[in-house]
Design brief:
Helix content: 25-40%
Number of strands: 21
Number of helices: 13
Strand order of the largest sheet: 1-2-3-4-5
Bound molecules: flavin-adenine dinucleotide, nicotinamide-adenine-dinucleotide
Distance between the termini: 73 Å
Structural class: alpha/beta
Length: about 475
């Protein structure tokens, strides 16, 4: 087979690239081991985790409803049905991507690719047999896999990575979550809501090390109520499979007062992901892999091998689906001869906990570490009419401005639905909006979006619902 563009890996980076290439009239092949495109995000990442979090949020709301005079009683959880629902969501989406590939006349090859030379790959098909493809350009979109350091490696089904945890084997009485990052907090809160006593162990002094502390503090308050224990500045030293559970020993702040050794029914290891750059045959090209395992690309997603591009988790952080898709589209535009580059000013990050936490652009911590002068305006959700109607005052909207130009440089949010609200922040940063632009844009009432407008009003000391005495 001879083709213009071959895409290796069918995740949100790879399939977005393949679909755009076909839309631009190029002949395209897409290779992935799964039956349909979707990758980690759809099969064992974003989508199944958000499905379970949706159900967890329903449980939390229904329990909380007694405070509003509505009593549902203790919910009965049918784990098999919940698992089926989650699987059906994945099936629906991946059948959709499969259909979309078909109608675009993309050659979808279910199998595993090996690079033979800078213009040829061989696909070992899942159904048996091999196919050799000659190509003008290849896009490597092989994603990432869970990183499990040797001290946390234990060949026992009770020690899970995120994929195993999403299978929802049972609701263990006790669960240790190693890592207080995205996956640890999202999946940890699913299990905690379903009834597990969850201990989170995080080696740094705080949860979600990349986010601003004032946002994390509000989330941490809730996490401390939902989880049994959060151990900060603490590490797992060793894990042993015992008859009664996984025997874990800790060191650090959380290892005091007889807590050094504990036994858990299950353990979820979520300490980061590593790029999947060990692509067979990559050494037959000039593609360079850096010391952290990421494929090196320029802002046009070109590797050192002129015919080969790379995108998504395999080229660097943040390892997020929307970043992968955007890079995929850039790579295709460059291949198609357009003058494109990846030059996003703001990549949104959302942690789908309860409350959600989201940020984009410059964080206050980054500004401080760079010594960059910024103005920060915050609007606490206790002053938001909408937040009060839904009984969710545990939120904060924060805008970071350039003090001279008054341009929005960063946005941080914590609160119910923060993940939806952050999109306005991305648009504001990309469009070079100023505090005045946000202040003068009429936001609908009563909505949480008003907190964006009112934060801008706070910047001028003129917020309707926040009184600041004149200086
Ligand atoms: P991937 O989605 O990793 O896909 C790579 C594909 O390439 C895989 O299917 C792999 O099998 C295939 N492949 C590898 N090698 C070969 C080869 N040699 N030949 C053929 N195929 C190959 N991100 C978000 O933005 N939002 C979220 O809510 C979110 N939630 C997540 C929850 C979990 C539990 C996890 C684990 C991740 C989550 N992520 C989330 C991260 C997101 O899944 C990744 O950033 C995203 O999937 C990266 O896309 P990608 O296209 O780079 O690669
Ligand atoms: P992470 O980088 O988000 O968090 C890992 C955490 O583990 C960090 O806080 C780190 O300090 C801690 N840690 C590392 N080693 C440790 C150890 N030995 N003991 C205790 N703590 C340790 O990684 P993750 O949660 O595994 O998620 C991987 C990536 O997947 C994320 O960074 C993100 O890019 C992506 N993801 C995104 C979403 C989302 O967008 N909502 C959800 C899940 C995953």
């Amino acid at each position: 087979m001879s083709i213009q563009v071959v895409v290796v890996g069918g995740g949100p980076g790879g399939y977005a690239a393949a679909f755009l290439a076909a839309d631009l009239g190029l002949s395209v092949a897409l290779v992935d081991p799964e039956v349909n495109p979707g990758g980690v995000c759809v099969y064992r990442g974003c989508i199944p985790s958000k499905t379970l979090l949706h159900v967890a949020n329903l449980l939390t709301e229904s329990r909380h409803a007694s405070a509003w005079g509505v009593e549902f009683g203790e919910p009965k959880i049918d784990l098999a049905k919940l698992r089926d629902f989650k699987n059906s969501v994945v099936k629906r989406l991946t059948s959709g991507t499969g259909q979309l590939a078909k109608v675009r006349k993309i050659q979808y090859l279910q199998g595993f690719a090996e690079i033979l030379d800078p213009h040829t790959i061989k696909v070992k098909k899942t159904a048996g047999g091999e196919e050799t493809i000659r190509f003008d350009h290849a896009i490597l979109a092989t994603g990432s896999v869970p990183a499990i350091p040797p001290s946390l490696k234990l060949d026992d089904p009770r020690v899970m990575d995120s994929t195993a945890a999403l299978d929802l084997p049972d609701v263990p009485k006790s669960l240790l979550v190693v890592g207080g990052g995205y996956i640890g907090l999202e999946l940890g809160s699913v299990y905690a809501t379903l009834g597990s006593a969850v201990t989170v162990v995080e080696m740094t002094p705080g949860l979600l090390p990349g986010a601003d502390r004032d946002l994390v503090d509000i989330l941490a308050k809730r996490v401390n109520q939902t989880m049994k224990t959060v151990l900060l500045n603490t590490r797992v030293v060793s894990m042993k499979a015992g008859a009664g559970g996984i025997e874990v020993s800790f060191e650090g702040d959380g290892a005091k007062d007889g807590a050094r050794e504990q036994t858990f029914d299950r353990v979820l290891v979520a300490v980061g992901r590593r790029p999947n750059s060990k692509i067979p045959g990559l050494e037959r090209t000039r593609v360079v892999v850096n010391e952290r395992g990421f494929i090196v690309v320029d802002e046009q997603m070109r590797t050192e091998e002129p015919s080969i591009f790379a995108i998504g988790d395999v080229v660097g952080e943040p390892m997020l689906a929307h970043k992968a898709s955007h890079e995929g589209r850039v790579a295709v535009e460059v291949i198609a001869g357009e003058n494109a580059a990846f030059e996003a000013r703001a990549i949104p990050a959302v942690v789908f906990t309860d409350p959600e936490i989201a940020w984009c652009g410059l964080t206050e911590a980054q500004a401080n570490s760079k010594g960059r002068k910024v103005s920060v305006a915050k609007f606490p959700w206790g002053a938001s009419g909408r937040a009060i109607t839904i009984d969710r005052m545990d939120g904060l909207t924060k805008l970071i401005f350039d003090p001279d130009t008054e341009r929005v440089l960063g946005v941080g949010l914590v609160g119910a639905g923060a993940g939806e609200l952050i999109a306005e922040g991305v648009l504001a940063i990309e469009m070079g909006a100023t505090a005045t632009d946000l202040k003068l844009s009429i936001h609908p009432h009563p909505t949480l979006t008003e907190t964006m407008m009112e934060s801008a009003e706070v910047f001028f000391g003129q917020a309707t619902h926040v009184f600041r005495p004149r200086r």
